[in-house]
Amino acid sequence: MKRTRRAVLAGVGAGIAGLAGCAAPTESGRQLADTEYTQVYRDTVESIVNIHVSDGTTQRGQGSGFVTTEGIVTNHHVVDVGPDVTVQFSNREWAEATVVGTDPISDIAVLELEDDAEMPEPLSFVAEPPPVGESVVAIGSPFDLSESLSQGIISGRNRSIPGPSRFPVPDTIQTDVALNPGNSGGPIVDRNGDVVGIVIANRGETVGFAISAELARRVVPELREHGGYDHPYLGISMLEVDPAIAEANELPEPGGVLVVRVESDGPSDGILEPSLSNNGEEPDDQDVPEEPDDEEAPEPEDEPPEAPGPDEPPVPPVQQAVPTGGDVILEFAGTPIDDSDLLGSLLALETRPGETVPLTVFRDGEETTVEVTLGSRSE
After folding, report:
1. Which residues are catalytic?
2. pTM greater than 0.85 (yes/no)
């Protein structure tokens, strides 16, 4: 296998020390300056792999991945489509790989090679989250075009997006880096070549998402050691408190999240008060507008609409009455809660199943504090 990134850099250091980022000769003899992106690409590309997944006869999926100290990291949804996984390195060599751990909630998987092939130097996750506006690049295999680079910035943080499981993927990074099918599982790196996120999805030409390095640092080692990861769980569905919900619940101002439903026998059952009962019906004191006299009332449904997964913000139907009567979570373990995405990030990054956390809630016109012992989503 090709020499590691560290070996390559060391080998050329004596001859061209100090030339990184300086002019390089071209065939015409002109001197062109390396950009910062060129240098990042050279420093990291050997550690990034193209992944093919098949059922033994037919290719079922393709994505990207990268080498870490725990193995090759990629997405759960990349390797979940078939049993046979192969990876290709930048020197065009292929190797068979085995999935040693996978987690559909964070959409992360860890692979190891089945032979003793030499691994390139591992990439490191950033120690601190970079700010919005930071320049970053994605390197991977969009449309199976290996070793492709695209650049952009971090455009948002603390997002929650749909993932392979019924739970949203918490603490994702939003970016305008161009991402396409095949980029999934590859790294987004900063100008130092450190990984700030794992590509998970694109939502248009200028909106893409990556699993944060903070979440990956928690999940990846446990996938390597135990094969899975145990996520903490409140067992609620919720809505962000906008001006309409704030007015209906006589809140002094918008903010926090309204507890809409509480899962029966879940961690918050009997502790947090919901706006809706567990069968999806509105409480008796819910203020529901009557149908106009000149319109025919719709036929009742056989069953109420299926409730969204717990810890997941529900999407209310059109013309549904504004929910009232439930607890509004204002603080989680002392941190003010502005929206459901922040609550999801705090759960994912700062708690573990079995921990008891204090919640400040607005209930019956006043603030009070309750304690919830977090459950496990795997249960």
Report:
1. 77, 107, 184
2. no
